[in-house]
């Protein structure tokens, strides 16, 4: 008899799920990332809630879909179509690669998947019900091309996690935030969010970030923004920033994407702020939408299970270039009549 034992797979999955699925918004983020990776051009997020909180999240995409065999495999931990080995990770272009999201979500919820591969190869689609990590139903159904995943009873078997959920409105705000972040990084996709039958967020498929910003935050804000541009041999900086007359009390409205991945980075937010210098009063921050394309070899995306953080090689050069690009963008604009408000 030894005191050490190898945990059974169900327990392992629940522990892993704890890292990936923190709240309903994490489910939305992971399902959206999968839909984007599947080449979708249109994605619908349908959320239902009652007084107690969010009861159902359903994401429908028109992406490449899955065969019945693939659908069953997709819920196996560490099953992915996106990388084969660690070398692939250095050049990964997809948002996913860990093969953990569906397994994690299914470990702590009840998931219904309906999918049919694009291109007419399969006559029928596949419907799967997965509960507590086990496939409990599998059948053929008529289905449009693409994938619909519905998640219900989130955290039904993890009461501790359920207790940490905030109010319904706070959780909904996180859900909308997750959609906004991905929409900003993926103008090639039209996103629509519906809550209890009412449309909450809608973006058109568009060529430009500015159109997406207008769709999410209104044409007035979009019109007031100043474009930013910058370049290094391994880096392209694009995006839009607010005029100094428009500012916020925290850096939370500085949104950053790197190679289509929405990320959180204090260093980059600080670089954007630095570019304003004394144009903003102390402790004020701009609204900014920064898009970075960086050689994939310089970006380590495998830092955190939720992939919200990345590690950058040559970070000092990158943040320096961002601050310089912001400064230049502001200098190029007639800001004379927009001196910062007296604090
Ligand atoms: P990852 O995205 O890291 O590969 P996931 O657990 O999120 O891992 O998904 C597992 C696999 O299931 C994916 O690699 C993909 O092949 C397939 N898959 C998941 N969602 C979709 C979808 N919406 N459309 C098509 N295939 C999907
Ligand atoms: Mg994924």
From TrEMBL:
Keywords: DNA damage, DNA repair, Endonuclease, Hydrolase, Nuclease. Signal peptide: none annotated. The keyword Nucleus does not apply. Residues 213-331 form the DNA mismatch repair protein S5 domain. One of its GO terms (molecular function) is endonuclease activity. Belongs to the DNA mismatch repair MutL/HexB family. This protein is involved in the repair of mismatches in DNA. It is required for dam-dependent methyl-directed DNA mismatch repair. May act as a 'molecular matchmaker', a protein that promotes the formation of a stable complex between two or more DNA-binding proteins in an ATP-dependent manner without itself being part of a final effector complex. This is DNA mismatch repair protein MutL. The gene is mutL. The chain holds residues 1 to 343 of 584 of the full protein.
């Amino acid at each position: 008899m030894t005191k050490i034992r190898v945990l059974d797979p169900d327990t392992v999955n629940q522990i892993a799920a704890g890292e990936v699925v923190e709240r309903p918004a994490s489910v939305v983020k992971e399902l959206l990332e999968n839909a984007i990776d599947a080449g979708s051009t249109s994605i619908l997020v349908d959320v239902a809630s009652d007084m107690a909180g969010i009861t159902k999240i359903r994401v429908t995409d028109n992406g490449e879909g899955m065969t019945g065999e693939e659908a069953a495999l997709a819920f196996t931990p560490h099953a992915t179509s996106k990388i084969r080995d660690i070398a692939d990770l250095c050049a990964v272009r997809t948002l996913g690669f860990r093969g953990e999201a569906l397994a994690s979500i299914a470990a702590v919820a009840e998931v219904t998947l309906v999918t049919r591969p694009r291109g007419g190869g399969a006559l029928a689609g596949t419907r799967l019900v997965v509960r507590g990590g086990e496939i409990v139903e599998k059948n053929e159904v008529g289905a449009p091309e693409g994938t619909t995943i519905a998640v219900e009873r989130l955290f039904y078997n993890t009461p501790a996690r359920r207790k940490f959920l905030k109010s319904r409105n706070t959780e909904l705000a996180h859900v909308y935030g997750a959609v906004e972040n991905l929409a900003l990084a993926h103008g090639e996709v039209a996103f629509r969010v519906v809550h209890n039958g009412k449309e909450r967020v809608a973006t058109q498929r568009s060529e430009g970030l500015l159109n997406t910003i207008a769709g999410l935050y209104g044409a007035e804000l979009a019109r007031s923004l100043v474009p930013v541009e910058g370049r290094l041999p391994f880096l392209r900086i694009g995006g839009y920033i607010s005029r100094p007359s428009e500012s916020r009390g925290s850096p939370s409205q500085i949104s950053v994407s790197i190679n289509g991945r929405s990320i959180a980075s204090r260093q980059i937010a600080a670089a954007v702020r630095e570019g304003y210098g004394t144009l903003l009063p102390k402790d004020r921050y701009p609204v900014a939408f920064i898009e970075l394309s960086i050689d994939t070899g310089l970006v380590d995306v495998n830092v955190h299970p939720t992939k919200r953080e990345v590690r950058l090689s040559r970070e000092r050069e990158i943040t320096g270039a961002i601050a310089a690009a912001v400064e230049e963008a502001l200098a190029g604009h007639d800001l004379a009549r927009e001196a910062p408000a007296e604090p």
